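Hi L., both proteins are below.
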Amino acid sequence: MVIKAKPVGMVRAIDYVNGGHEGGSRLEPQVGLEFDSSDDARECYSLYAKRMGFKIRIGQLYRSRTDGSVSSRRFVCSKEGFQTNSRTGCPAFIRVQRNASGKWVIDHFLKDHNHDLESTGENPTPFMQSKLPIVKNSLADVTQRSKVNLLEDVEDRRPCPSGVINVKRVKRDGDDGQSKVQPFLGLVFNSANEAYQLYHSYGASKGFRVRIGQLFRSRHDGSISSRRFVCSKEGFQHPSRVGCGAYMRIKRQESGTWVVDRLREDHNHGLGTQMETHKGSLNASNRFIEEVNGGLQNKDLVTKYNKNLVKRWREKHNRSDWYHVLFEYFQSKQAEDTGFFHAVEVKDGNCMSIFWADGRSRYSCSQFGDAIVLDTSYKKSVYSVPFATFVGVNHHKQPVLLGCALIADESQESYTWLFKTWLRAMSGRHPLSIIADEDKAIRQAIAEVFPGTHHRFSLWQIKAKEQEFLSSMDNGFKCEYEKCTLHSQTADEFDIAWNALLSRYGLKENVWLKEMFESRASWVPLYLRATFFAGISMYESIDSFFGTLLNAQTPIVEFVSRYERGLEQRREEERKEDFDTYNLQAFLQTKEPVEEQCRRLYTLTVFKIFQKELLQSYSYLGFKIYEEGANSRYLLRKCGNDNEKNIVTFCASNLNVSCSCQMFEFEGVLCRHALRVFQILEIREIPSHYILHRWTRNAEYGTVGDAESVGTSQELKALMLWSLRETACKYIEAGSASLEKYKLAYEIMREGGRKLSWQR
């Protein structure tokens, strides 16, 4: 088979595929590799996977927001995700993106797996990634060897008198002042601080920067047992990161010294020239606060370092540059938008946190403020701008902005001020749910300001902490842990499985697991399904609202223009969906009256979700298992799968229905099981209380049906206010386009005024 591929601007890879390279088809994926089709890319990755010893699956596809065509695809390791016990959440994948010429180019490639690869019996060619060196001696053997002998592997072959690497003595050797100590397995340090300094100097000499990565704690006493130092391009939390797998891990020994026990030197990106080791950069190693015994404090020192950065930001920027730039922007917005709102937290005469929301965001909150996301992803890296957003989900299942803030610090006081200010800007309407970080300050502020709101922890944070803990556990524990947390159907089932797991592995006294159990209502799917989250996935991280437009490197002078551009792009996407909903019509696939009813009411996106549930309902069998008066209960079982069962309860007096899967409670759309019971009972129309107004075509315009459907009188007034204000703004915008339209709009408004008796 011939794969027509070539790296953009590089040697044609087809020469390797056609046998031009020794060993035949030895093409390895790399960023920039170009294909005639996505199928060719898949075939290339499949051949590579077969040679390396793993299998692939077709992952997500992404469609163009302009014409709906497929714009990019992901091909992943077969062990990606956690949906089955055989999967390990492997991150390895390639992503290909279609360019303007119609070709498909690899724009992301992560080659590292978190599981063992099968032996293929083939020797990899030099074109492939070289594997890490295998250490035959156990870690215990390493610590028992003479430390002077270990140092004989160092390039200058001058052992320290103590037998332990002293970075201060060997980090500079030569006229160029660069480090000649290269990390290797078994290298011993007096402290984690020295290990960081060496890896930082090594990175500078090779042309990459270093970040402090994960830390791992002992299961017995909670003390830090190992640390990772990673390439600055590790992960994907920030647009500048490419998932680089290079890192060094050190492990603490009983003697108090630290040993390199894992090392990966391969980068998936180009390296720069040698960088000067700035004093300010090395000062970052002061994050390590040494104890008397040479270890590290149990406190998460990265958090402390981030807090110091934010404090410096507050002192340097909030009182000067940032405030002046934003205040000028606020003044210009207030002149053109009467609904624009902003507030500043002032403490001891100094400007602290800043919050703002335009009229459209405040109006959107009256419709879509029931489930919100507080995105403080700047904390995932060293952001110079602590920018946070409140984001909701609109009636097209798109993210919608509900407010922005610059947060002065990460104290409970600052978050409490922020939440109270947001609540005041949004006419006091409390959300049903909020997705935010699990930081103690945020949890306490939410409990104080939103006492009845269900706080769900951010997925990226939970996954990061799980990865830290699970990395030190065997596969058996991981499988049981995932089965307990992801597949438990009742609270009793979860409690029994959790306690059995802790007993079996002797982890009843583990501090982290105790904390996770106490907060289970904020992260375990079982406890989240009963709360409305607008269907925001519990298994996939949420993308940033502004994407790559706003990031850590955004200069002050460009912040406002990029913010406006990103906001306009999102709102243009919403207008396009509005246009499609009103001008396009989905095909009906059944003769059920409920399908026609929902096509008429729902937006296109939500109707497709309902239609999928309706079609799936035909594959279920329903059996009445209980009846008393108007109440009855049904057992729903999927044809050909006796393990998939659900219980549906129905009340004939008020047409109330509830299902054990709780899809309606979580997403606001009736599930396939409830629809199947309606079919059995010959109910031909969805009861009105199961058609949420927020998912309908008219949701954007805030059509108010009746007071009972809205809630409190305060919420009703806020809804009417923002609905009328938004409609008036559209009249003004359309009427000012020309003199003729102005006259028409003016006459319409005059006629409306006469009917309201405010104009004669």
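That was the first. Here is the second:
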Amino acid sequence: MSSLLESCKLIDQSSSALSTVAVAVAALSCEAARANLSAFDLTDPGDGSVAKDDIGVSSDIKVLLHGSKLAVSSNKGDDNVNKNSFSKILDVYGNVREAVKSLHSAIRVVANSGQKLSGKVLHLCFELRNLGESGLERVRLNLDSVSIEGLKNIFENDCLSEERLRSGVKLAVDAELEKDHVKLVKDVDSVLGIVWKIVAWEAVTAFFVLEGDEVLNEKNGGKGGEADGGNVKAEKKKKKKVLLGRGTSLIVEMIKDRLMSKGDGLEKIVVEFLSFLDPKSPDFDGLLKKVKEILESNESRRIPKTPKGTRDFAKEQMAIRKKAFSIITKVFERHCATALDTPAFELKETLTGKYGEDSKLIYDLADQGGELCSLRYDLTVPFSRYVAMNGLTSFKRYHIDKVWRRDNPSKGRYREFYQCDFDIAGQYEKMGPDFEVVRILSEVLNALNIGDYEIKLNHRKLLDGVLEICGVPPTKFRTICSSIDKLDKQSFEQVKREMVEEKGLSVETAGKIGTFVKIRGPPLELLSKIMGEGEGSELLKHNASKEALGDLSLLFDALDKSRCIDKLVFDLSLARGLDYYTGVIFEAAFKGGVQVGSIGAGGRYDNLIGNFGTKQVPAVGMSLGIERVLTIMEEKAQNQAVRATETQVLVAVLGDKLSVAAELVSELWDVDIKAEYKVHKKVMKHIEYAIDSKIPWMIIVGERELNEGILKLKNIETTNEEVIPRSKLVEELQKRLSP
């Protein structure tokens, strides 16, 4: 075991070095191919949806290429090159880093427990193969661009290929199947050696694309000509020196210093170069140290970051959010609600005991002068506190604001996020408010135009009746509801195991619950079936569930007449884990391609307001999961042009006279025209800005226009220009901007 462990440690050490050096080599290839760096525009969204190692690779590539004039950060690069050879770098190299870390952690455990390493070693082998194949693509791409004859022949003599990689991996897989772990480690080490050779060749070919002519000319005393059978193609004029990235330029200079001190001739130079990137070479540690120094000097690592589960919103995202909030507010105000705002934090006692098992997710604040406070978990409890504190007996309000939960971030799940709530408190006709809030949720989702969705609906009393019929003690109703609420994420067998092993139900009781929670279907059809014979017989004998079925009958009839029942599903598995629900409960789920979970929910809570005062005021409300809805909208907008501003006119002043711009743009602002200005000598700079910002109109004014009392009015879409009198600026623009 000790020799096997030592061999694994050597693989761990070598592959760790590879994961660092390979990224630096890939950066050289980016410059050799003039690749588009947009593939590396990866940031941490704060929700755990992007692998940390992918983000690390992205950051390292950008550090190495910072300041480069070869690798570009716009669509001016070769998109096909980028897609075919560079877009996979983050995923492939990030996976290698993750596999290396996994093996390293396993080695530490093994040293203490004797746990087998074969699975981790084989996983690393697969990821190394992917890295090798990715590197070979760029080696060939570089060879197609290199201006030095003979280099391709030297490479081909090394017999590096995808087939050789796959054969090595197959040997490792066979060894694992045969439980021959010593052979497995040996075979993986062989694959690692092949990958190192590929990475070295990628460095060689990228370097010769960038600096090969210069190095060979210097080695030949500036005469050019032949070098060990390989011609340096004569150049008619000296190449213009192109600026490399800060990191890659240091690596290139280090390689040049090494090569200039060694033997002449192309083949000898290549051999020396490959030796430099051999991890067994005595000089390799110097190269590795230099690469690490460059990466660790990364200033971006010292830039402040947002906390986990939070994120910043760029201008395009803010445009989408602003549009969504406007649509939602319009629907809420159509239903005659008034806006309400409450503090971002409440007394801890206000929030305690309202959220069941989720109470552990409340953010507590440090003691501030004797008051224990917590950030609000939702908008419903503060609303209930407000109604009770002010002695209100009826109130229809909406509230759009941030809430905070100490949750584990995941895709569409954050620790800081907006909620959009609509609640109706007070005594009204039976099921009237319940109908309206479900209708409002449907209206909002339709207005946002996100795609197909469904609203699952149940009744808390019906669920309580099911639990009582199944034999669940009343003291366990809420905790079992929390388990049932997980059925949209887990199988019933997983939930059943939790109810039996963690919450003490018998297998028989849990199994009986399963027969009920699997019941779902169209509301009117399923309700009619339950009210008849068969499944409904036990529920109709139970007072609470019978009352609930009566409520649902009224609700479904109203929703049917309101023409929105086609989006509803009557689902007996819907539980909603919050403790304060007492009646109808509902939850909306998106049915499109983006997996985001619940996008809206709500229900009746008749006793919550009474917890804060002397009077019980019944209430029902809904909350839109706006962050998840926005995730869907952002996905849909990826292939669409999103305007970050609503600018209608750009005032383009040719020259440096701010006063001219101030005079013109102020006239437009005064009449409520959305305008901005730019002062620059070059007209194309103005036009490019207008095109990039999707501004439809431009006013162009230079010395000639000022002297003649005219302005140029340019339509950006059609490129048509016309001359207008300076005095009629506002009149002419209003004429064109009016619908």
